[in-house]
């Protein structure tokens, strides 16, 4: 790592960061010098309770680290968090932010005053001399916050980037964003605009198996759509009466029971508000997120699995269809009997075989410790009674014919796919033609991206509030790819692509 006795703007003075015990080191002439503040904090962090093996495994998997790097990173991160407030106070108005970097999270502190560099080095961190203090950057960001009401919708985010000593404005339309920044009256050296395809929104997806609340707790069956409605989900009738308000798994206001039948039947549907998006998936807890692609009823003896907010995901087999079961409240007819276990709170949750929805949890006997018998109300009856459609598609769309290449795939809400792959395709100069056919009732978007160095930049896009998109782009030779984004809704799509 490069070392230097001089510091210039934007240049980091690096010290090797090694986890060492908190002892004094011999100085010139054999004298002892106290260990740096950061080294002491690392020693304390290393002596603390060891991290759970699951955390180390997750860091190895998701950050591409070795076990040793992951362990060192956790120590260094904890030490940096402890030392940063002290250095911030010492540097005062010249503090320009702090961060960790590299696989093992080396600690860097920035300052806008060259006379403060020695204090950073003495504390044991790397030093970086920059132009703007953190207070200056925070003030610039606060000015943009004041103007948020007039910001173009093509700007998804702005933030203080301490590593690059600037305020960053992300934008799907960079020209529009630059005009917004120019009108803010801020020093041009403080703010930079970066192209981005981000379209953030609250992550309030409706998923089968998730909890919802209405005074008590039940579970979502399957997400549904309905013409002229926001859509919602099917569940058990004994969970609520028509007009009952619901809250989602996060206790955020969610929807209202629009139909309910119990006893005699045990089914209902809840219409959600605009903060929630029905998605064609089931939360299978430890088994992942499962797509729902239809509702073909499986034969007696077939395997079937149930998801619910009390016991998670369990499987068994179908014992009988067209069963009548008597509860204290009365008899329920036309349900399916299974060997899957369930417990209170699982009511209304999803029964699924493969990717085919089967029904919603009604009741049963036993529990998931000793086993038991359960009953579910068939989903197709609920869909028919209330005029509902499962969210997601049963078969891939067949549109976008006549294109050079056709690609099929399936997405859940807010997921992305890249066609013909993350590496893209090589094209000559000329016109690209893109067609996207998404599932009915969803909002799918397509973005044509071009590789520039190591960065993918969006050069054209189709982002209407519809499932289908079509556009062309006349570009130079290079490497391109198409990002398909499920803005809302889930299911299968077809992408048509003609390349020059």
UniProtKB/TrEMBL annotation:
GO terms for molecular function: serine-type endopeptidase activity. GO terms for cellular component: extracellular region. The lineage of its organism: Bacteria, Bacillati, Actinomycetota, Actinomycetes, Streptosporangiales. It is an enzyme of class 3 (hydrolase). Keywords: Disulfide bond, Hydrolase, Protease, Serine protease, Signal, Zymogen. Pfam families: Pro_Al_protease. Its EC number is 3.4.21.-. This is Streptogrisin C. Gene3D superfamilies: 2.60.120.380, 3.30.300.50, Trypsin-like serine proteases. The keyword Membrane does not apply. Belongs to the peptidase S1 family. CDD domains: alphaLP-like. Residues 1-26 form the signal peptide. Residues 132-188 form the Peptidase S1A alpha-lytic prodomain domain. GO terms for biological process: proteolysis. The keyword Hydrolase applies.
